Automatic annotation (TrEMBL):
Its main location: secreted. The keyword Phosphoprotein does not apply. One of its GO terms (biological process) is dorsal/ventral pattern formation. Belongs to the noggin family. This is Noggin.
Amino acid sequence: MKASEALLIYSFWAALLHRSCCQPYLRLRPSPSDNLPIKDIIEHPDPEYDPKEQDMDDRALRKKLGSHFDPQFMSVVAPAQVNFSSPDPLHRFKGSGPLPNELKKLDLGETPYGTRLKMGKKARRKFLQWLWAYTYCPVLYTWKDLGIRFWPRYIKEGNCFAETSCSFPEGMYCKPVKSVTKTFLRWYCQGWSRQKYCTWIPVQYPIISECKCSC
């Protein structure tokens, strides 16, 4: 494919994406917030609101959480602080999985000038693979300490790499489009002083599970 042909295709693709970039891939309805990842909770600083040693029985808490305990995303002890996906921006050039339908349906022959470009199947396949690799948005996982008032205390949280643009020309960034919900136990207190009553209650915590290039 000649440089002039490639330039025309790039221009067409950019115009096509910018016409539709404001149409969301999926309406997010996570609980308790539409903003992912969840921001840190502002905790009451008084240690009287912390669970005591007798409240931290591992066997009893595992039984209370039951089948919701997911060792892939939860940990009782501090895990090794390593990224499960590389934050290197070049990582997105390693797009994995099948091509998205919006790329498969992309008409690479049309140009902004109303003319048609001839492109063989091999050239089309290579270009679409390059395009998918460039716009690929992996989920970056890191372990997060939720504090003593959550059990399990550590969660593997997902983030979208958004430090650089994922589109050509620039202007679009990796954003969350899907999330999964995990159930944790939260130490919750009611009342004050000696009238205070505290117990473990189940709470749902959304985790980003998919990111896409969007405006």
